[in-house]
Amino acid sequence: MSGINIDENKIVEAVMKALQGQISEADSSALAGALKAGDNPDDGELPDITAIPENDICLVDSPKNREAILRLKRTTPARTATGRIGDREKALIVFRKKAAHAGASDAVWDEADLSFAEANNIPVIESAAGNKEQYLMRPDLGVKVREEDMEVVKNRLKKNPDVQIILGEGQSNLAIQKGLPELYPALIQGLEANGIDYGTPVFVKYTRVGVGDYISDAVGAKISCVILGERPGLLSWNSLSVYLTYGAKPGILENSRTVISNINDDGVPYSEAGAYAADLIKKILAEKKSGSELVV
């Protein structure tokens, strides 16, 4: 077996041709269109199976009511009606899962995109983790600002604001690339409309939520507002979350945080989340509490 050369591209091409054979000429679904896109052998490219909407995939053999299955699929992003080949999943589903896993892995391992921070003149510092490997292996370092950057916190960030905004890639660089251009302006607009002092926003590489406790405590902010990319999964790897903590300081309990999560294209819209965060900050300032003590 060691002397056999295996061409993986030919294997994939053969599988895709087999899948195309399962699609009737009359089928106009997105699945059919994506698979038939590979009919031309001269284009040199296979169809992008990640572009097929999950709602269009029904691989159940000879379903009694295909339309009912598709209606059911439109109610959930979960992978349903995937069919089986014997005791295993069909090739298209396996490939889509592998592609989703690769996307999630890229979201975690990609270095932070600092273009948004640079375009908005936001200072950039780092957590004590120092690099991606340490960040993932040592969560305790991600909640602290590295020693040399504490000078930036003390000297460049405005003292005693109502809220200190901390941005960071967290565990999804893709999330901040996609979401910050919409969420951040909506947040700032809402804060300014309510006359709330948001001080000097800062971007922290290798961010954990707790880093906001150290920074907000150092500048004397009433509220810490941490916006970062969340850990990706196989269904979404571009989700942001906003963590709001009143009286943030190192060691504060996690139940002190008010959270807006699942901010993505298929969840809470980015701009809506920014506006809602501004409203929550106003409420937290008025009631002087957050987390489990705050009724929203």
Automatic annotation (TrEMBL):
Q: What is its EC number?
A: 4.3.1.7
A GO cellular-component term linked to this record: ethanolamine ammonia-lyase complex
Query: Looking at the keywords, is Disulfide bond present?
Result: no
InterPro entries annotated for this entry?
A: EutC, EutC_C, EutC_N
Query: What is the enzyme's main class?
Result: lyase
One Pfam family in the UniProt entry: EutC
Question: Which key words tag this protein in UniProt?
Answer: Bacterial microcompartment, Cobalamin, Cobalt, Lyase
Q: Mind listing the GO biological process terms from this record? A: amino acid metabolic process
One GO molecular function term of this record is:
ethanolamine ammonia-lyase activity
Q: Return the PANTHER family for the record.
A: ETHANOLAMINE AMMONIA-LYASE LIGHT CHAIN (PTHR39330), ETHANOLAMINE AMMONIA-LYASE SMALL SUBUNIT (PTHR39330:SF1)
Q: What is this protein called?
A: Ethanolamine ammonia-lyase subunit EutC
Name the gene for this chain.
Answer: eutC
